[in-house]
Amino acid sequence: MTVVRVVAVTCRGRGSVRKGGGRERREGKALRREPAPAASTRSRTFWAAVMAALVMITTTCATVAAEADGDLGAEFDMTPPAAMPDAATEDAVVAEPMEPIALYPDDERFEAAIDRAVAARLARRPPLYVPATDFAPPKGLVLHATTHANSRYPFALALTGFIQGRWLELARSTTQWTNSAGETFPVNNENEFNLNRIYLAAQGYVGDERVLYNFALFASTAPGVLVSVAPVGFVGYSVTEDVKVGMGVTQVPGSREWLMSSQWPMGVDRSMVNTFMRPSYSPGVFSIGSLFEKRVFYEAGVWNGLDGGAAGVTRGGTAMAWAGNTWWEPLGPFGLGYSDMEQHAAPALRLGMSGVTARSPAYALPGLSGVVNPENTVVRLSDGTPLAAPNALGPGSQVTAFNYQLATADIGWKYRGWSAFGEYYWRLINGLTGTGSFDRSSLFDQGGNGFVGWCFVPRTYEIYGRSSALTGPYGSAHEVGGGLNWYMHRTRQNRLTLEALYIDGSPAQNPLYPYRAGFTGTAIQTQYMVIF
Q1: pLDDT of 200-213, one tens digit each?
Q2: Fewest CB within 10 A of the end CB: N or C in the chain?
Q3: Is 102 helix (H, G, I), strand (E, B) or coil?
Q4: Residue 531 contacts residue 263 (beta carbons within 8 Å)
Q5: Rounded Cα distance, 373 and 217, in Å
């Protein structure tokens, strides 16, 4: 039920007083008696009040309807209407400097004052939750938002994040595997519950609507004893509506699937080939934006390295990682993720590519500290051996640094609940330095992934299939599987996923994913994710 209150606007200046049935205006030291409004004036007063009430009712109902349809999230950007006053009192709507005067309904400024009072009422929204739309992620719980139009110091703060609760069972088909150095390791069964990802972010602007900030804590219980917690985020500046620059700890844009947030995968998580090939998070500077009326998008910059685990002040050398990603949406907005749970009425297409080049130190472990990003990765050979492991490229050898080049191309399509996505990867590693002699002077690996889905009950149930494969000098690997997505309450923000995968000879390893180096067998996963 919507309750509408008519705001009585008092527009009486400090220099005016009311007395008896008329009005006295103070002008200097003199008081001038003015007669009370005539009957016709009182009639106009009554009908003006009625019209003001109708305006307020219509505006409020339109706002409620917009919220019910989900349109509010698409329009709301933590920037209140320009007409919003500083809001100390409702009378502030007419508190701008002017000659003291009392406004009557027959005065043209009366209607303007009413409009500003309505705008002020409707603008006093925070705290307000802004959910995801069909094309944009949630803006979260907006706790505060002011602009130059209504505050001397503009400031906005919104909280957002997500939680993944996951059950994983790995059922092995082999008991051991041997790496390129000739070492043998066991292949284990696993059965565990985890809060796989916990992400809490504060974002907004400070001092000016163009000065942006985003700070987040990213954690996981999946690594076990070494519970991983890492700070990520950036400070930035909005050069124009379509171009932003920033500095912080962000993803190195090495592939489409890597940049696609782990909030929006078609299945439980990203693919094996992406986990094997991609870079990770790192400190750096970047620019993101759009061109040609928001049809072409890009993200590019320079980062300390491929991975935050070796990108701090103790990293070896001064070389940086240069990376960029661009994509084209020729038929209109593509939307979130790969799936078409929103049921596009017209086909949506996205074409993209990525590239990374870096000189990187080699290391065999993603870090041993309790404060480490759980997405950190290790460059490995195609059989799963870490490139930096002793004897990986021959007896007595150990790589200490290398050149890394990665290129990808991707395509995505959505239409009436059907969706498809594919990405192909090419990775070249050369410029090897270290100790001993190497069996090879360069390593070339390639592979790809594919996803196909059908949301057979619009915005509710979706079945999908997925696969990925890769090959390189030290072996090949593949995975195939599928599952069911249940979008509870017809929203992406509340999703249950059931999935089964068969994995053959995984070269990838990361505790956030069902991939362990050398693993062959079945992975069964159930995940419940809430996004806010």
Answers
A1: 999 999 999 999 99
A2: N
A3: coil
A4: yes
A5: 10
Q: Which among 305, 306, 350, 298 is positioned nearest to 324, based on CA atoms? A: 298
* Tens-digit pLDDT profile for residues 371-420: 567 898 899 999 999 999 999 999 999 999 999 999 999 999 999 999 99
β 296-303/321-328 pair status: antiparallel
Ordered structural domains, the chain, with CATH: 16-125 (no CATH), 140-531 (2.40.160.10)
Lowest-confidence region among 39-43, 76-80, 487-491: 76-80
Q: Cα–Cα distance between 226 and 46 in angstroms, integer?
A: 72
Burial of 252-285, coded b for 16+ CB within 10 Å and e otherwise, reads bbbbbbbbbebbbbbbbbbbbbbbbbbbbbbbbe
Would you place residue 49 in the very low, low, confident or very high pLDDT band (cuts 50, 70, 90)? low
Q: How far is CA 472 from CA 20, 143, 445, 475, in A?
A: 96, 51, 4, 6
pLDDT for the residue 481: 98
User: From the CB of residue 194, how many other CB atoms can be counted at a distance below 10 Å?
Assistant: 18
> Does the pLDDT value for residue 281 go beyond 60?
yes
Whether 519 has a pLDDT exceeding 80, the answer reads yes
* Residues 6+ away with beta carbon under 8 Å from 423: 255, 256, 257, 274, 408, 409, 410, 411, 448, 449
What distance in Å separates the CA atoms of residue 198 and residue 223, rounded to the nearest whole number?
A: 13
Q: Are strands 155-172 and 176-178 parallel, antiparallel or unpaired?
A: unpaired
**CA distances (Å), 509 to each of 41, 222, 267, 274, 480, in order?**
81, 13, 18, 11, 17
Q: Are 342 and 416 in contact (CB under 8 A)?
A: no
How many other C-beta atoms lie within 10 A of the C-beta of residue 288?
18
3-state secondary structure at position 259: helix
CB 284 within 8 A of CB 253: no
The sign of the CA dihedral 450, 511, 503, 429 is positive
Report the amino acid identity of residue 64. V
Q: Tell which wins on pLDDT, 229 or 158.
A: 158
Are 529 and 497 in contact by the 8 Å Cβ rule? The answer is: yes
pLDDT in tens, 452-469: 999 999 999 999 999 999
Give the tens place of pLDDT for each residue, 338-359. 999 999 999 999 999 999 999 9
41: tokens are 């004036």
Give yes or no for a cis peptide into 458 (omega within 30° of 0): no
Distance CA(25)–CA(21), nearest Å, equals 14
DSSP at 515: B
Distance CA 6, CA 179 (A): 76
